[in-house]
Backbone:
């Protein structure tokens, strides 16, 4: 299933690095950026997460909640978050249900690995509606962070 701009964001509950459940619906009333990424510690994923970290002040000014989702376990994501001092939530989609729900699931990855999420970005407005959607077929490409920020700016 793929999600599209203008439709309600599918709700989900995933565990964060503190092993606490986080439900998307509980963030209603806030602007949310969902970033799906294939795997912690891979070069482009690390670059992506560090880019968000390094621009954290801009996301805070735009009043955006950032949630980064991968199929890694909450334990691995906790270490990744600590290693790179990431100030936003990392969520484990270990069972790959949310990746499938958002149309980001990728069966084949690299080195014969199976079942990760494509790199993707979604912006959800305060009413829970998707206002930006980008799913990248090439895991070497990064999301368009400037387009994400412009979308956030346009949301009152």
Residues:
């Amino acid at each position: 299933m793929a999600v599209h701009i203008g439709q309600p964001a599918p709700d989900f509950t995933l565990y964060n690095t503190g092993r606490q459940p986080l439900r998307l619906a509980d963030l209603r009333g806030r602007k949310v950026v969902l970033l799906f990424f294939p795997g912690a510690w891979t070069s482009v994923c690390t670059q992506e997460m560090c880019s968000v970290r390094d621009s954290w002040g801009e996301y805070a000014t735009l009043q955006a909640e950032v949630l980064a989702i991968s199929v890694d376990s909450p334990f691995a994501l906790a270490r990744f978050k600590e290693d790179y001092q990431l100030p936003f939530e990392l969520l484990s989609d270990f069972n790959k249900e949310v990746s499938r729900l958002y149309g980001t699931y990728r069966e084949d990855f690299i080195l014969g690995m199976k079942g990760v999420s494509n790199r993707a970005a979604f912006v959800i407005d305060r009413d829970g509606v998707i206002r930006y959607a980008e799913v990248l077929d090439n895991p070497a490409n990064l999301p368009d962070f400037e387009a994400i920020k412009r979308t956030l700016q346009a949301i009152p």
Remarks:
- The beta strands are 13-16, 21-23, 31-36, 64-70, 89-92, 105-108, 114-117, 120-124, 130-135.
- Residues 43-54 form the longest helix (12 residues).
- DSSP finds five helices and nine strands in the chain.
